Amino acid sequence: MYIGSKSVSVNLVLFKIVCCGFFPLQVLNEKKLQEVDSLWKEFETPEKGKETAFLVFLFYTASTALVEGKLSKNLKKILKKIVAKDAHEQLAVADAKLGGVIKEKLNLSCIHSPMVTELMRGIRSQIEGLITGLPSREMAAMCLGLAHSLSRYKLKFSPDKVDTMIIQAISLLDDLDKELNNYIMRCREWYGWHFPELGKIITDNLMYCKCVRKVGDRSNFASSDVSDILPEELEEDVKAAAEISMGTEVSEEDINNIIHLCDQVIEISEYRTQLYDYLKNRMMAIAPNLTVMVGELVGARLIAHAGSLLNLAKHPASTVQLLGAEKALFRALKTKRDTPKFGLIYHASLVGQSNTKNKGKISRMLAAKTALTIRYDALGENTSAEMGAENRLKVETRLRLLEERGIRRISGTGKALAKTDKYQNKSEVKVYDPSGDSTLPVVSKKRKIQEVDEQDTEVAVKAKKFKAEMKGWLLYLCCCHVIVCIVQLGLAFTASHSTWVFSSGMTVCLKKVMILHRLTPDCSQDYKQL
Amino acid sequence: PRGGGGARGGGGARGGGGARGGPRGRGRGRGGGARGGARAGFKGGKKVTVEPHRHEGNWDGLGYTGRDWDGLGGDWDGLGGTGGCPLPGVFICRGREDALVTRNLVPGESVYGEKRISVEDGDTSVEYRAWNPFRSKLAAAILGGIDQIHIRPGAKVLYLGAASGTTVSHVSDIVGQDGVVYAVEFSHRSGRDLLNVAKKRTNVVPVIEDARHPHKYRMLIGMVDVIFADVAQPDQTRIVALNAHHFLRCGGHFLISIKANCIDSTAPAEAVFAGEVKKMTAERMKPQEQLTLEPYERDHAVVVGVYRYWVVLGCTGPPPKEK
């Protein structure tokens, strides 16, 4: 090798590292290594380059080790091959550190000098010509791929922490909800043509669709068993309604189509619940503190609104408070009115729990602490949820204080405390009701007026208490139903006929009850016969 | 006679503008054609026209024919004029306010919230992105009247100090799909943003490494035509020289943005710039232009030069050392 004017002819094996691997190149013409400065001429064209250096062989391998100057397994293998071939040769490397490592591990002497750098430049400029069988497009693509993966490795990029998933999931959730609503409305309308009463009895959408899917035609309702879908009372109602329904008959084919639609609805509902679970998991993984503070849905919506977690972290707390209420905000700013107090934050549980008066204050406090947790999640290194829990505790304490202050003034005196509710007299005045004196069945106007008067004043009148030990049947006739109930022991009632008092302490109030026979101790005998 | 000067205009595929000799300290601020500031007030529906960027030096008023810069020596419009050169790939948008724009490689996307302008071109519409000279040193240099940035469609550019990728995106717009931009950035925070930019633009190769050790990323980068450096380090000339020795082809160009405060905060700015220029010449980097970035930045300068220029001259080696 050349140093100054000395000339030692040596067979050099050049070691070139490119994105796709190692290229041990052999220098063919050592004389050309004479002048460092004119070496560039040799590499002006691919052909000339080929004359100077010859590719030994190609090897693909990992580059992370190279970046740190270490020796990877594949590298060792090739170098051993070279050593085996020509032991007296010298290896030229571009990285001095790597050269040192190679020397100590494989006993191959390495060179690193300006001449080597020049050679490397030359080869680099003609790399396409030297490496046969690799088009430049592929080379570019490989370079790009390697650069990206190396960068990700450097930045410790983890695929869990990608917030694109959250944004897409929450948008999909909203879309699904809309679609589901459309389909369910369509299903109800369609099936309602055949069996309209079902829609009014079953309010829950999923239950409706499952029911329709199971039964199909209205006539099958009596025979089919829908107890696993519906609770018992509803089942009875439905079966009864099926008998006397006023919908029209429909053909088998139509029912089949409706059933297909119900299938779709059920499938989408299940997928929606699954998606919601997925969203919850991702939110906990990506932004645990934010989830603790405001909940998964609100957190996801905030991230989706801002575009990414990092963007959200850049917003000040006042913006976080009003994200989602931009239209109202700018309208109020333009017309010089009061600006809104909350945006998406309104749906957080803490804001929901407070009274209307305190919602504004709580939303501001919550937004302030939430902004801190967002920044911690987006830019911090750890992923624990302690900070979120602490902040939430602070906000909850403040909320409690606020509500207490509503009851108790902080700087109040006894006078302030005394200004409570207006005093209302709640004493009971008992007046003697003479209507119970006579046992003759008299229904006079006077009594009715009396009754009305009694009812209006809302003062309980106890004239005579009848304690009738009743064991038997009470026949209660109504317009279309006959309800028979067993009256238990200890029935007592007041003369106003408006309360039945059970001796055990329960009071059953039946106003405007049509009692065919007033129960008197005399009549009790009659009723025992029934 | 110095090998620089006149012969350069004649030979070589990429001659500099006109017959100029040696490095010049041109500290003029750009006056003409009030290039509006960062925010062009383009209201929707307003008629705007986009034209290729031309220096006001072309006083004969000839329209730019849209021909590619194909190395006609100093005589680019065949008229024998010595006016300034247009910068291919860079355009000026004229509307209510004028703005420097580049053609968007990824239509519909805004990288750092900048304004996008759509212009109807027959059936298709072409989108341009506004380039903010207060945020980008390269834009400030162009608006300041730099002669040649050497970054043109199809070029391979090594960008040192890429930060979050705002100027890198504009450079990527200029070089187009045929060119490559190798963006080197050491900071992890900015590196993440850079990765996002590189995801969208396939001609940007992100490298998250220290530019002081080019051997660490030698496997990712081929030979480049231009090095743009905006690293703001006291030893930035050495960094650029190291990278040039590794990756810059002979006759390639470099643009270095120098912040006087960063190199030496006690010395006056002109002295700092002169010192840097001297360091460059020692490393076989020949400066050709120097331009301060007033009014966009204070005490900043951009130096444009050529590396191993004797290649371009067809000489056999560097000139003999001067006494």
Characterization of this structure:
The complex is a heterodimer of chains A (530) and B (323). In chain A, 53% of the residues lie in helices and 9% in strands. With 530 residues, chain A is an alpha+beta fold. In chain A, strands 3-2-1-4-5 form a 5-stranded mixed sheet. Chain A has a 4-stranded antiparallel sheet with strand order 6-9-10-11, with no helix packed on it. Chain A has a two-stranded antiparallel ribbon with strand order 7-8. In chain A, helix 9 packs across helix 15. Chain B is built from 8 helices and 13 strands. Chain B is globular, with a radius of gyration of 19 Å. The two termini of chain B are 15 Å apart. Chains A and B meet through helix 6 and helix 8 of A and helix 4, strand 9 and helix 5 of B.
Beta percentage of chain B is: 25-35%
Largest interface: A-B, 29 and 31 residues
CATH class of the largest domain in chain A: Alpha Beta
The 3D shape of chain B can be described as globular
| Poorly predicted parts of chain A | 1-11, 54-61, 455-527
Individual helix count of chain A: 24
Largest sheet of chain B: 8 strands, mixed
How many H/I helical runs of chain B? 8
Q: How would you state the average pLDDT of chain A, rounded?
A: 74
Beta strand % of chain A: 5-15%
Number of strands of chain A: 11
**Largest sheet data of chain A:** 5 strands, mixed
Short description:
The complex is a heterodimer of chains A (530) and B (323). Chain A is built from 24 helices and 11 strands.
